Amino acid sequence: MFIKEITVMNFENYFPLWSDLNIAQKKLISDNLITQVVKKGTIIHNGNLDCTGLLLVKSGQLRTYILSDEGREITLYRLFDMDMCLLSASCIMRSIQFEVTIEAEKDTDLWIIPAEIYKGIMKDSAPVANYTNELMATRFSDVMWLIEQIMWKSLDKRVASFLLEETSIEGTNELKITHETIANHLGSHREVITRMLRYFQSEGLVKLSRGKITILDSKRLETLQRS
Q: Where in the numbering of this chain does the HTH crp-type domain appear (predicted)?
């Protein structure tokens, strides 16, 4: 019981709508809240096969992506500390048919509000319903931004942007990442990414080694992604 109370108390500090819930709704969440600790590489949600529920990241990093019929991946967005994901509970919204896969990019602590619990509260609470709509709109804006990048930005700019984003996330210019991983994020082929990275290396932008990419010239990468 004591551990459960600590879990709920921590959740209160992360869930932005807690103060908008009534006593019964708070109890409903508290009684059904799921805590998970997942290892890097774990698939948390797998398309329409799951209706996992609302995810709230306590610490760690998740990746939300879609798969093509040929098995190619492309990252839609990532989730970090205190981020929430509703597409893992898209079954509660009849008009949305969106198959996504959610994977832990790092060891991650998270909470899950089961889909039916969240759906019931959303029906009875205007603040929760409004927040849900805002959250969904934000995620679809992420997807629309991605589509624009794919349609209008050349691959060299997208790779430059991705490398800069990774250095910001990891806090280092030495990225332990494979060409295959970058290809999966960008919806490309490993061979294409390898050719692009070798070009970057020939231009003095990066240094390539086994399983690692060292950023040598961030300013030129920034210029490239904006050009």
A: 153-219
